[in-house]
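Page 47, continued from p. 46.
Same chain as before, 388 aa.
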Amino acid sequence: YESQSNDDIREGVIKAMDCRSAAYGGKEASESHGPTHKSLVEARLKNVEGLENVLLYLLTNNYQYSSMMTSHNDNHNSTYCTDSAFGIMGAVNESLLYSNTGVIEILPTLINSAEKGSINGLRARCNTQCDIEWDVNEWKASVVMTSDADNNVVKLRCGLAWESATINGVRQNIKTDEDKMPYVEVVLNKGAAVKVDFSLTSTDSRISVKTDADISKSVNAGDTVHLSAVYTFERREAESAEWTVVNAADNSAIAGASVADGRLVIPDSAKGKTIKIYATVGGVKSNELMLHVAGGAAETFEVCVSKADDDVAVAITNDAQAKTLAVIWTAYDSSGALIDYSEKDITLAANAFGQMVVPARWPAGTNAVLYVWDKNTMAPCMDAVNVK
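Result:
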């Protein structure tokens, strides 16, 4: 499970799997349960190449009998058993559906030769049945989800690169998970099938920027912040990334701020500012990170915003007065009538910093206005900000 969000663990397990194969001279252990276990691991790691290699080994070394039951060892020279008969099926299922509490991901480890297909009746951990269909040459994938419970809120992801998702032709808001993977939120009710269609795109169409810094707290001038840019869906490093570091308040340049070899040394010129960092690779812009650089004993109240897919990220630096704030994002139609609003509260000590993501509850592209109010005085802390 930890390999889904921790790249160090994921890469370490992949390396261990590669070393295991190297120990057998580039092959696998002769006992069928060894490569079968490996196929399950490779599928869970979302390592397409590793899964293809071990499945090819299992299917070309005389483990299967005509009944599709299997021999314990290769070349039919050992006990008749079910190890790889059931294990291969499990690995293929795992490559087509990953799930955990509240999360479903279709086609997480689709092998390259499976350009078109469908599978029905796969069960997800979040009490849901999934029927999946895909055609990579037509740039589409879909899933029909049927829940066994009411008000079942699911983060739905697609392992193939995608750019939009619809339900009944209505474009869904895209959100970003903690591991920077995009998803759409779907609310399921018992027995009511919901079909979600994904529009696929090229694997290099989305870039994610990550950092080891705790962006919920201020950093200091002189600190080194480590940054990485990766192709989101392939989880591989994006080479030749062009980095941009600006003042989040007005997008002006920060003197002396530049990223070299994945490191940003915070310059003195950034003191007291919230900085915005993003990467561009091949004309594709990444997500934006916001970091506040401590300015000293006294800070100035400031609110900065950036987009987080279809949601909005809000970074707030507080002054010398402790506050409890209401951050309210409100959408209106063309006549000025209220569509909906989204609210989050935050309590900040004197001179403290904090940030949050406020979710959109309306169709993407709607004009919306951001307000920040002091909950104790019920007075606005800033002018309203238009955020589309």
